[in-house]
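WP5 quarterly update. Target: Glycosyltransferase 2-like domain-containing protein. Source organism: Candidatus Entotheonella gemina. Length: 279 aa.
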Amino acid sequence: MANPLSVCIITCNEEANLPRCVASVGFADEIVVVDSGSTDRTVALAVEAGCRVIDQPFLGYAAQKNMAVQAASHQWVLCLDADEWLLPGAEAVIRQALATHRPEVAGYALKRHTYYLGDWVNHGGWWPEYRLRLYDRQRGEWVGDSIHEDVEVQGAVARLDVEVGHFSFRDIAHHLNKINTYTSMRAQHWHAQDHASAGWLQLIGRPLWRFCRMFLFRGGWREGQRGFIIASIVAFYVFTKYAKLWELQHGQGQGKGPDVPVWDAVSDARVRNGNAMIK
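Structure tokens (predicted):
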């Protein structure tokens, strides 16, 4: 390989996913794992696999990934999430790209393929899902907010015929748990940034449009009932983040009950005794 390669992975309690990810990039010259306080065997597994492990309290997704990239030893880096892995054939394509890349190319987008509810998702806009993951760290960095992050590079981006497996959701319950976390983070970010109010358009129109775009216009219906479920959950995600924004903007997110008079048994007894004495 003309240019050595560092693989950068951020983790937190990823013992179920990390071995698959690390095994798929064994050809790399270096694997850097930045862990944010795992309480399972993530760190031990990374060390056993020969990774260089760095402990770093979570800084946010973009900042955490930039920290991993800065710790890498080589100019070209491949950034993967722990629930992602390279499918067979990736090594040869990546080696060829790094050996022959044009000077103006600062990064490569890879094809992410999600596995969910028992099979690969091939429609609905989830395949092929190109993500810029292989890049020259001297000309690129991760940018984004508390949830969504992407790589921005100074230079051209080419596409590689490299497939990245993605197993982000174990099941529907796990998916909904992630939605609960991400929608709260998104709503809080919007609220802090004084985002436009969550009106009828956002609460009804945007979820409906997302469902129609995914299920009807982008072929999610080809996945059958599984495609309908996925599109419905994604629409629910859109609805929930705006509903939580509405909650914050209207001051309804404090968990307080209604204002009602509180009955004081001691005072009530004293009043009744006083009334009895008067009589």
